[in-house]
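ARCHIVE RECORD
Type: protein–small molecule complex
Small molecule: zinc ion
Source of inputs: curated submission
Record status: active
Notes field left blank by submitter.
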Amino acid sequence: MRRKTKRIICIALIYTLFCLIAVLVKHFVDLKTEAESLENISEKSTDQEMELTKEPVIKVVTPGTGHVVCIDAGHQQYADMKKEPIGPGATKKKPRVDGGTIGKYTGINEYQINLDIALKLQKELEERGYTVVMTRTTNDVNISNSERSVIANDAKAEAFLRIHADGSDDNKVHGASAVCQTKNNPYNGNLYESSRKLSDCVLDGVVASTGCKKRQVIEVDSMSGINWSSVPTSIIEVGYLSNKDEEVKLTQESYQELVAKGIADGLDNYFK
Ligand SMILES: [Zn+2]
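STRUCTURE (tokenized, with ligand):
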């Protein structure tokens, strides 16, 4: 009997020991899981903090902006050679919208370059707090030069900016120019001062941003898009699609961004 009792006590002790070990192991595993889940929570909250940092609650708007600007990407996919008067009440007529130039080296169409830059400029200006009106956002349109001006007039734009690229038979010619009316323009000579200032500001902005050659501000009264405009207006000729270096640059997204930034800087200066 004593032996049997001893054995029972021994078995009971071993069983208790096993139970104790099992309880300890379970407790340890639980602790570990808890620690891991705490770690996950802290990782998640760090992620959330990062997201919050990326999206500030208050949107910073650049001071001095909020102006209405109309952007016209020059030309369109198909020229419309039907004629329209070159100004309100004019007897002289010119094609509604011609085909623009074509890159000598890459074959790129001017209307495409103009649109690429115009869309980048739209984004840049909107980010700076401007109200932007676009005459077109695709190539497949038919809007004459005078109709584009009317879009700017109706929008009461404070500046009507038309984006174009140049072409020349001389492949050495390169650089940017701007175009506005003369002070004697019979349709809107009263807008000469502001249009000239706009042209100077935008041309200087593009030259500073891209480092391209500064050519000149040309004053002419033969452009329908200028003559029909009843708001300050300028054509920015961003470069030559007949000069190899400049043409290749103008097809590059990064250079187009610089042109758009330069135009936007010029507009900021114009409105200062
Ligand atoms: Zn053009």
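CURATOR ANNOTATION: The CA atoms of residues 182 and 219 lie 5 Å apart.
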